[in-house]
Design brief:
The complex is a heterodimer of chains A (about 350) and B (about 250). Chain A is mainly alpha-helical and about 350 residues long. Chain A has helices spanning about 5-30, 40-55, 55-60, 70-85, 95-110, 115-130, 135-140, 170-175, 205-210, 245-255, 255-260, 265-275, 295-300, and strands at about 145, 150, 180, 185-190, 195, 200, 220, 225-230, 235, 315. Chain A has a domain at about 35-200. Helices cover about 45% and strands about 10% of the residues of chain A. Chain A has a three-stranded antiparallel beta sheet, with no helix packed on it. A two-stranded antiparallel sheet of chain A has the order 1-2. In chain A, β8 (about 225-230) and β9 (about 235) form a beta hairpin. Chain B is mainly alpha-helical and about 250 residues long. Chain B has three domains: about 1-40, no CATH class; about 45-55 and about 85-180, no CATH class; about 180-245. In chain B, about 55% of the residues lie in helices and about 0% in strands. Chain B contains eight helices and three strands. The mean pLDDT of chain B is about 75. Classes of the chains: A mainly alpha (about 350), B mainly alpha (about 250).
Chain lengths: ~350, ~250
C-alpha cells in the first residue's frame, strides 16, 4: 500500500476512534447526570478539549463567562501555574517596577501560545452568536456600554486562582497591552495612558514619575503617548532602559509572543525564572548517574522512552511540561524521621 | 440547577485528548460542578441556531468525477523525478515536535479569516473531520509536518474545530452526515427509559396486588364506590390473566 492510501486509512481510523471516545464520554456523563441532552455534553467536551489544547487561551479567545467561572479558572489553573507571576522578578521600583507588574501580569496571558490571537478569534466566532442575537459584543468582551462609555462589568471577575477578583475586561486589556476603544475595537494601549476600571485616562504627574519619567521633562501628548515636552517627540518606550535589567526579561518584553510560544519549554522557563542568563537547574537531582529534569522524572514514572518523547502527546490539566514549576518538583521528597539514639 | 461544590477537581493527564477532556468533564461533574458551568457564553446554551446540513451539489460531484477521470500516478512515477527536486513531504519536516506543530497550526486556525471560513464551512454542512484532515493534509503536503505528526494532530485539531462550531452555535457534522446522530440516540434512550418506567410500574402494581392479597370482596364498601367494585369483580378474571402474563 502506498503512503497516501495508508494515510487515508489512518485518517479514517483516527476519526472513528475520536467519535467512539466522544460517544463513550457522552454515555459516561449521561450515567452521572440524568436527563441531559447529548449536545450539552458535546459542547462541554469540545470546550474542555479546546482549553486543554490551547493551554487555557481558548477561554480568552472566545470570551464569555467561562473564563470567570470556577471551572474555567480551574481548567487554566495548570497553565497559569507555569507562568507563576514572577517571571520578571519583584521588588523593583519606578518604571522597572511598573513594567515588572505589567510583565508578570502579561505573562499570565501571553505565555499561553495563543493568547495573542485570542481576541481576534473570539470576535469572529462571537460575531456569529451576536448575529443570531444570542450574545452582545459588549457582553462577550466583559464590558458594558453606557452612552458610548465603556466600562468593565463589575461582576465579570475571576472567581478562583491567582487572578481571583480581577476584572475580565481589565485582564484582557492589560495582559495583552491593549484596550477596547469606543468603537469596540481592541487597540494598543498608548504608553502614556492607563486603564482603570475600563476607562482610559492620561497618566498624571505621579504616575509618570512612577513610570520613570520626570514630569518636568516628559508629558502625555494628544495621542496618549509619552512625549518629551520640549521637543514634542514621542518617547520610544521599548528602546528606553526601563526594563528589568535582566537580559531574559528584556528579551521577553521585546519579543512578546515569540517568548509566549517558547515559554512552555522548560529551559526557557528556567532561564526566565532565574533572573540571570546562566539560569538555575530545575527538576530532580537525585543519586542516579544523570540529572533528571522534570520531563525525565515524568517519563520514568510513566514508563516511556525519552527518545520517543515527541511521540507522546499528553493532554490534561496536569501536563508534565506545565508542572515544571509546580510544587511537585520543589517539594521535599525524602524526609528522614528523627530517631534519637538509633545509630548512637 | 447548580449543585453545591463538594471538592476541587483533580488534575487529569492522558495521552488521548478525548479521554483527558472527557475525564475533566466527568471529574468536574463528580466534584459537584454543573454541566452548564462549561458554557463559554451562557446564552449559547439555547437550541442551535444554524444547522450544518449537507446538501447535494451537482457541480461538486461533476468536479470530483472530472478530477478522478484524470487518473492517478503511474506505478514508479515518483522514481522518475529528479532527486534534487523532491517533493516538500520527501524532505525533513519543518516541525519535528508535534507540540510546536500544534501550536502553529491551532494559532493559524484561530486567526479571523480562517475562523470565518471554518464557521462558514461548518454552517454549510462540511464535517469537522473533513476540515481537520484538509488542514493537516495541506500542512503535510507543504512539508511542515510528517505523516506521524499529522496523525497525532488530527484529534486536537478536530476538537478545536468543534469548539469553534459550538461557540458559533452551529449544529455541525463530526464525520460525514451525522448531524442528528446524537439526537436520535437521545430519542431512542428517552423511549427506552419510558418503556422501562412503564414496565417497572406494571411490575410494581402486580407485585403489590399479590403481596397485599387484594380481592374486591375484602374491600370495605365505604372506601370504594359500589359501582366501581362491581366493575372490578366483573373484570377480575380478565385483569388477573393480564397480570399473570407478566412483562413481555
Amino acid at each position: 500500500m502506498g503512503l497516501f492510501k495508508s494515510i487515508k486509512k489512518a485518517f479514517k481510523k483516527v476519526v472513528k476512534g475520536v467519535k467512539k471516545v466522544v460517544k463513550k464520554v457522552v454515555k459516561g456523563v449521561k450515567k452521572v447526570v440524568k436527563k441531559i441532552g447529548s449536545s450539552k455534553i458535546l459542547k462541554a467536551l469540545a470546550i474542555a478539549a479546546a482549553v486543554v489544547v490551547t493551554g487555557g487561551a481558548a477561554l480568552g479567545a472566545f470570551g464569555g463567562s467561562l473564563a470567570t467561572s470556577t471551572v474555567g479558572s480551574w481548567m487554566v489553573g495548570a497553565s497559569q501555574s507555569v507562568l507563576g507571576g514572577t517571571l520578571f522578578g519583584t521588588g523593583a521600583t519606578g518604571f522597572a517596577g511598573a513594567m515588572q507588574t505589567v510583565g508578570n501580569f502579561a505573562t499570565k496571558m501571553i505565555a499561553k501560545p495563543f493568547g495573542a490571537v485570542g481576541t481576534a478569534a473570539g470576535n469572529v466566532a462571537g460575531a456569529v452568536t451576536d448575529f443570531t442575537g444570542l450574545t452582545s459584543k459588549a457582553g462577550r468582551m466583559g464590558y458594558t456600554e453606557t452612552g458610548g462609555v465603556f466600562s468593565a462589568n463589575a461582576d465579570a471577575t475571576f472567581k478562583a486562582g491567582e487572578l481571583k477578583g480581577t476584572q475580565l475586561a481589565d485582564y484582557k486589556a492589560a495582559t495583552t497591552g491593549t484596550y477596547v476603544n469606543s468603537a469596540g475595537q481592541v487597540t494598543a494601549l498608548p504608553t502614556g495612558q492607563v486603564l482603570t476600571g475600563g476607562q482610559l485616562t492620561n497618566m498624571n504627574a505621579e504616575q509618570l514619575k512612577a513610570a520613570g519619567f520626570d514630569p518636568a521633562t516628559f508629558s502625555v501628548g494628544e495621542t496618549g503617548e509619552i512625549i518629551e515636552t520640549a521637543t514634542g517627540k514621542a518617547v520610544n518606550a521599548a528602546s528606553s532602559d526601563y526594563l528589568t535589567g535582566n537580559k531574559w526579561g528584556d528579551f521577553a518584553l521585546k519579543t512578546g509572543t515569540g517568548v509566549a510560544a517558547s515559554v512552555a519549554s522548560g529551559y526557557a522557563q528556567s532561564e526566565l525564572m532565574s533572573g540571570e542568563a546562566s539560569g538555575t537547574m530545575t527538576g530532580l537531582s537525585n543519586e542516579s548517574k544523570e540529572y533528571q529534569d522534570a520531563l525525565k522524572v515524568y517519563a520514568d514514572g510513566a514508563g516511556f522512552n525519552m527518545g520517543d518523547i515527541y511521540g507522546q502527546m499528553t493532554y490534561g490539566t496536569a501536563d508534565p511540561v506545565y508542572q515544571i514549576n509546580s510544587e511537585l518538583y520543589r517539594q521535599q521528597t525524602v524526609g528522614m524521621p528523627e530517631m534519637a539514639g538509633s545509630y548512637a | 440547577m447548580s449543585q453545591v461544590k463538594k471538592r476541587n477537581p483533580k488534575p487529569i493527564i492522558s495521552s488521548s485528548l478525548s479521554e483527558a477532556s472527557g475525564g475533566i468533564v466527568l471529574d468536574a461533574l463528580d466534584a459537584g460542578f454543573d454541566i452548564d458551568d462549561f458554557q463559554l457564553n451562557p446564552n449559547t446554551g439555547s437550541p442551535k441556531q444554524l444547522r450544518g446540513e449537507q446538501r447535494f451539489s451537482q457541480e461538486g460531484l461533476d468536479e470530483i468525477v472530472d478530477l478522478s477521470g484524470k487518473g492517478g500516478a503511474l506505478p514508479g512515477q515518483s522514481l522518475m523525478n529528479d532527486p534534487e527536486q523532491s517533493y516538500p513531504w520527501e524532505k525533513p519536516a519543518k516541525f519535528a515536535n508535534p507540540r510546536e506543530a500544534l501550536d502553529v497550526i491551532v494559532g493559524e486556525i484561530l486567526q479571523p479569516e480562517p475562523m470565518q471560513n471554518i464557521v462558514g464551512a461548518l454552517a454549510n454542512g462540511a464535517a469537522v473531520a473533513d476540515l481537520s484532515i484538509a488542514v493537516l493534509y495541506a500542512k503535510f503536503s507543504t512539508g511542515d509536518i510528517n505523516p506521524d505528526t499529522m496523525l497525532l494532530l488530527v484529534e486536537p485539531v478536530m476538537y478545536i474545530m468543534m469548539a469553534i462550531g459550538e461557540e458559533a452555535n452551529i449544529k455541525y457534522n463530526i464525520e460525514g452526515n451525522d448531524l442528528d446522530e446524537f439526537d436520535e440516540e437521545d430519542e431512542a434512550e428517552e423511549r427506552d427509559e419510558k418503556l422501562n418506567q412503564f414496565k417497572n410500574a406494571f411490575t410494581d402494581i402486580k407485585q403489590g396486588a399479590i403481596d397485599k392479597d387484594i380481592e374486591p370482596q375484602k374491600i370495605n364498601n365505604g372506601t370504594v364506590p359500589k359501582s366501581l367494585l362491581d366493575k372490578v369483580t366483573e373484570q377480575g378474571p380478565e385483569i388477573r390473566s393480564m397480570l399473570s402474563r407478566g412483562v413481555e
